[in-house]
């Protein structure tokens, strides 16, 4: 589903997160990740036509190693296709661990075509 379809995205998030109250994602977190990714792609000088297939992995906050139990968090995967970002996957899984905990993050994964289109810096 397209990320611009707010109602459908929020409905899917509600279904995935059901009764969860911690380490949840919302629509604003997904749109913010897409905006940051577009800014990164532009700063690398990659033309928009080469963005096709690039993905964003949105992860929940990571828990401290001292936390007992298995904390669950909501993960999302967004993909750029047909000129816009699409929500490909939404799921809950065990949140990652970090020595003192860490905030959630989004990771931009480039395709080979996008990597080839990066403009070199002129010094």
C-alpha geometry: globular
Strand order of the largest sheet: 4-3-1-6
State the low-pLDDT regions, or none: none
Main sheet summary = 4 strands, antiparallel
Mean pLDDT: 93
- According to DSSP, the number of beta strands is 6
End-to-end CA span: 42 Å
The proportion of strand residues reads 25-35%
Number of separate domains: 1
Summarize the structure in short.
The protein has 123 residues and is α+β, with helices and mostly antiparallel strands. It is 28% helix and 28% strand.
Describe this protein with a few key phrases.
single chain, 123 residues, alpha+beta, 6 strands
Architecture blueprint of SSEs:
Elements: H1 6-17, H2 27-43, E1 55-59, E2 63-64, E3 72-81, E4 84-94, E5 97-98, E6 105-109, H3 112-116
Parallel strand pairs: 2-5
Antiparallel strand pairs: 1-3, 1-6, 3-4
Structure overview:
The protein has 123 residues and is an alpha+beta fold. It has one domain. The strands form 2 sheets. Strands 4-3-1-6 form a 4-stranded antiparallel β-sheet, covered by helices on one side. A two-stranded parallel sheet has the order 2-5. It is globular. The mean pLDDT is 93.
């Amino acid at each position: 589903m397209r990320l611009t379809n707010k109602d459908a995205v929020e409905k899917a998030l509600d279904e995935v997160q059901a009764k969860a109250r911690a380490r949840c994602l919302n629509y604003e977190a997904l749109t913010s990740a897409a905006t940051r990714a577009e800014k990164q792609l532009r700063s690398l000088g990659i033309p928009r036509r080469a963005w096709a297939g690039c993905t964003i992995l949105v992860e929940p906050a990571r828990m401290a190693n001292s936390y007992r139990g298995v904390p669950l968090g909501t993960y999302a995967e967004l993909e750029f296709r047909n000129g816009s970002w699409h929500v490909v996957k939404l799921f809950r899984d065990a949140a990652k661990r970090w020595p003192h905990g860490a905030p959630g993050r989004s990771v931009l994964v480039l395709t080979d075509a996008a990597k080839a289109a990066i403009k070199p810096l002129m010094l």
